[in-house]
Amino acid sequence: MSEAGDVLDFLRTRFPRLDDRLDHIGRKLDEVVTRLGALERKVAGIELDYAAIQKRLDNVDRRLDRIERRLDLVDAIGAPAS
Q1: How far apart are the first and last CA of the chain?
Q2: What distance in Å separates the CA atoms of residue 60 and residue 66, rounded to the nearest whole number?
Q3: CB neighbour burial string for 13-24, b if at least 16 within 10 angstroms, e if fewer
Q4: Which residues contact 65 (CB under 8 A, 6 or more apart)?
């Protein structure tokens, strides 16, 4: 019984420390999850900005095509006039 008592005493001394470490790990995990959420929001914002830039470039491309056609700088097929 003495050996079992020693094991129980050992475990009683270790459990509070393990519990503290698990609490610390839990807090760190919460922090990481929070930071990951912030990164996801930032990436989503960057993707929206990228889409807006692409749309503006498409508009500029259409306007440039129209200008080139009006000035007869391209053939009917779209190749530059020689």
Answers
A1: 103
A2: 10
A3: eeeeeeeeeeee
A4: 74, 78
Q: Which residues pair with 74 in a beta bridge?
A: 80
Length of the chain: 82
Residue with tokens 């470039």: 57
Whether 72 and 81 have beta carbons less than 8 Å apart is answered as yes
**What does the pLDDT look like over 8-64, one tens digit per residue?**
888 899 999 999 999 999 999 999 999 999 999 999 999 999 999 999 999 999 999
pTM above 0.85, yes or no: no
